[in-house]
Amino acid sequence: MTTAVGSYAVEPLDAQTASDADLNALAGFGQAMDAERMPEDPPTPLPLRVRRLRNRPPTMEPRRWVVREDSLVIASAALVRWTNLTNPDWRELAIEVRADRRRRGIARTLLATAAGVCGDGIVLSFDTSDRVPAGAGFAKRIGAKAGLEARISETRLAELDRAMVAEWARIDPAGYRLVWIDDDIPGELLENVLVAYNAMNTAPKGALTFGEETATAEMVRGWERMRHRNGGLQRIALAVHEATGETAGYTEVARHPDTPWIVGQHGTAVIPAHRGRGIGKWLKARMIERIVAEWPDAERIRTGNAYVNAPMLSINDRLGFRVTFSATVWEIAIARVRDYLAG
Ligand SMILES: CC(C)(COP(=O)(O)OP(=O)(O)OC[C@H]1O[C@@H](n2cnc3c(N)ncnc32)[C@H](O)[C@@H]1OP(=O)(O)O)[C@@H](O)C(=O)NCCC(=O)NCCS
């Protein structure tokens, strides 16, 4: 159903069934929004954005709406339920409005549209960047609460302290072996990887209420299928405790050949029983050495961490990660959203 916003119309858009033209328009809007938030990045090519919109993770249940002026998308909203969270009432929301169309009530109308499909008890969560202060202005105005402060940081591979990385890479903690997983996870390692992924639940989550993020074999296989369809690459370094075969820790990175300049540092976790032996430093350093050798055209590694995650920040800072921007993750109960909309 299309609803009117002053002279604008809010239209639902389902990326699974949308036309190429509609997805290209949405991808072009995404490019413009990224150029505002991360002007130092070359644009992510439109065909890759379209592929990513079509091939979503199997754990993602999105609803989307767009506002257009002729064929130009000027605003969008995505409301996502992640099926792997233990809090079934938690929803991720992303509302974006082109910089030159702000302060006209468009976000308010998109928020009303998204709230209209939410039952009572739903909690909405969204991120804002300190590079776009309008996001925090909006969040405060609607009555959202800051749940977690995070930093996005990058290390430039050309400026790495190679000697330190080499030293960490040689930590080789006694009683542990490092296993590389370069593509699909072999069946015999799947259980180890699930333990590793689920250890991310020990990372600080501030006041956020999404619960735990549980990975299952079926989900992991679904993520692999998505990665193949999108053409992305992934490397996992898994630390295994030799005596028991248990997972001690892992680190994971991803890169896409169409955005070769950037490597995404995803999860890193050391299982509590195996902490204090240098496994985190060892895994990260071995991964960086591998990135440098295998992807010489990569310029930077980018990662996101909660400001309160002292152990991870201590490793990352020594690896040369410098903050590029800070993000706030907000939460707001649907009842509060309705109060704002009624006001
Ligand atoms: C945040 C954003 C979506 C707001 O879009 P918008 O169309 O300008 O917002 P609206 O005009 O509908 O404003 C909604 C309310 O927020 C308030 N608001 C919006 N921007 C604000 C700002 N920069 N400072 C203070 N209040 C602000 C408005 O005054 C309005 O309040 P009102 O209902 O009392 O009039 C837009 O700035 C944006 O795209 N930012 C980048 C993406 C982002 O951070 N999104 C976070 C939300 S998920």
Protein described:
The chain has helices spanning 20-37, 46-54, 106-116, 134-142, 162-169, 190-198, 217-230, 279-294, 310-318, 334-342, and strands spanning 3-5, 8-12, 60-69, 72-82, 90-97, 123-129, 145-156, 176-181, 233-241, 247-255, 262-270, 300-306, 322-333. The protein is an alpha+beta fold. The chain has two domains: 3-151 and 328-342, Gcn5-related N-acetyltransferase (GNAT) (Aminopeptidase), CATH 3.40.630.30; 153-326, 3-Layer(aba) Sandwich (Aminopeptidase). The chain has a 13-stranded mixed sheet with strand order 1-2-3-4-5-6-13-7-12-11-10-9-8, sandwiched between helices. The longest helix has 18 residues, at 20-37. It is globular, with a radius of gyration of 21 Å. The model has no long low-confidence stretch (mean pLDDT 96). Bound molecules: coenzyme A (COA). Coenzyme A binds at residues 93-97, 102-108, 126, 128, 132, 134-135, 137-138, 141.
SSE order and pairing:
Elements: E1 3-5, E2 8-12, H1 20-37, H2 46-54, E3 60-69, E4 72-82, E5 90-97, H3 106-116, E6 123-129, H4 134-142, E7 145-156, H5 162-169, E8 176-181, H6 190-198, H7 217-230, E9 233-241, E10 247-255, E11 262-270, H8 279-294, E12 300-306, H9 310-318, E13 322-333, H10 334-342
Parallel strand pairs: 5-6, 11-12
Antiparallel strand pairs: 1-2, 2-3, 3-4, 4-5, 6-13, 7-12, 7-13, 8-9, 9-10, 10-11
Helix pairs in contact: 1-2, 3-10, 5-8
The protein binds coenzyme A.
Residues 93-97, 102-108, 126, 128, 132, 134-135, 137-138, 141 line the site of coenzyme A.
